[in-house]
Amino acid sequence: MPSLIDIRRRVRSVKNTQQITKAMKMVAAAKLRRAQERVISARPYATMLEQMLASVSGAARGDDKASELPLLAVRPEKRVQLILVTADRGLAGGFNTNLIKAAQRFLAEHQGQEIVIEAVGRKGRDFFAKRAKLSGEHIGLVNKVAKLTYAETQAVTQRVTERYINGEIDAVYLIYNEFKSVISQKLTETKLLPIEMKSEGGEESPKDYIYEQSPDVLLGTLLPKYIENSVYRAILESIAAEQAARMTAMDAASTNAADVIEKLTLYMNRVRQASITKEIIEVVSGAAALE
Amino acid sequence: MAATFELEVATPEKLVIQATCIEAQIPGAEGELGILPGHAALLSSLTSGVLRYKAKDGRDEVLAIHGGWVEVQPTLVRVLTDAAENPDAIDKARAEESLKRAQSRLANVVENVDFARALNALKRAQVRVEVAKK
Fold it and tell me: What is the pLDDT of residues A95-132, one digit of tens each?
């Protein structure tokens, strides 16, 4: 039977752990709030950009010059680029594991094709550093949370689009966690390039705009921005999702620690009582022996 | 009441302005665009420049914007730009310094200077300085 002191020590250690998990939960909650604000404030631009892109691409349809734009070029997918957005840090429940699993599934599905991974986030980089071919890594980006600037994410996109335009890669996919709510993240896999134009139906025919530049020129400048913005938003979403996952995980850990403390305290009291009872019996039996 | 239109200026990071305006001047890529309520639908790309608008209450406001597009509809003007800066947000001294730097870089062009980039930087700096003076 462990001694009283041993149990007391364990209780103290679990209490320390609980303090840490509680603190981490608070930090994640604060960061989550800021990350959420960023996601929301990025929305107006993205919706406007999408609408603009839809009307311009509607106007540019059938235009030979527009369909020759490098970002719309469809090639047989021989070399595939994957952008994997993970976290820089762990202790966020299944956040990184799920991403890595999804990426592995992606690799398995695209067997026979040459796949290169652009890793955003340390966790994905570490896992795939020896298991797959990395084309680049971006560490410390997602750790900035609310201080992340648009320009910093541009670096990620720029390299990828450049390679696409040069014909070094034939398709670009993006895997990241979308922020659904505080308790759930949605693992998302999207195709970034070639851009698939939504074929806008005749019902919502594009408005008759005066185009200062011809639609194909406008489209040529809009498309790269669209890709940039998609990546930027994916990273923002991932940051929010990471903090949410960490908050949930740390909340669960704190609750678990409370349970353990309760059990240990109960056990400790039982041990103490048993030793008291034993002592009483000894005293009583000792007195009885003297009679 | 005078006719008005809604002006929205958004950067990838946030919605910078949402205001009801009487008129606006926007630095279009092909030249300054003056916009009044009821303007015909128009799409244009933008250059670095000063965006001026007169709010409903008659206030004149300026904003430095850097590139992007504008979508004009009779009652709505949407500006999508890479960066938008209020006059208050611009450090005048720093802006002037970067203007000088850009000028000197263009003045003694060396082979390995990216001319377009340098020109861009100059333009940005000029806009900043101009807006900061307001």
Answer: 999 999 999 999 999 888 889 999 999 999 999 998 88
Asked whether residue A71 carries a pLDDT value surpassing 80, the answer given is yes
For residue A262, give its domain range.
4-25+250-284
Q: Would you say A87 and A120 are in contact if contact means Cβ atoms under 8 Å apart? A: no
Sorting pLDDT into bands at 50, 70 and 90, what band is A27? very high
Are A238 and A274 in a shared domain? no
Question: What CATH number is given to the structural domain containing A152?
Answer: 3.40.1380.10
Shortest CA distance to A191 belongs to which of A218, A221, A171, A162?
Answer: A171
Going by C-alpha positions, the residue among A192, A171, A177, A183 that lies closest to residue A142 is: A177
Contact B71 A52 (CB under 8 A): yes
Q: Residue A276: inside a domain, yes or no?
A: yes
Q: Can you give the CATH number for the domain in which B114 is found?
A: 1.20.5.440
How confident is the model over A2-21, as pLDDT tens digits? 788 899 999 999 999 999 99
> What range defines the domain where residue B125 resides?
91-133
Does residue A46 share a domain with residue A186?
yes
Strand pairing category for A133-138 and A171-181: unpaired
Q: Which amino acid is at B67?
A: G
The Cα A216–Cα A219 span in angstroms is 5
Q: Which residues from A are below 8 Å from B12, CB to CB?
A: 42, 45-46, 150, 228-229, 232
Asked whether residue A49 is domain-assigned, the answer is yes
Least Cα separation, residue B12 to chain A (angstroms): 5
End-to-end CA distance of chain B: 28
Mutation site, B8, B14, B117, interface A, largest A CB count within 10 A = B14
Asked if A212's CB is within 8 angstroms of B42's CB, the reply is: yes
Q: What is the ipTM of this complex?
A: 0.78
Please tell me whether residues B13 and B69 are part of one structural domain: yes
Same domain, B68 and B114: no
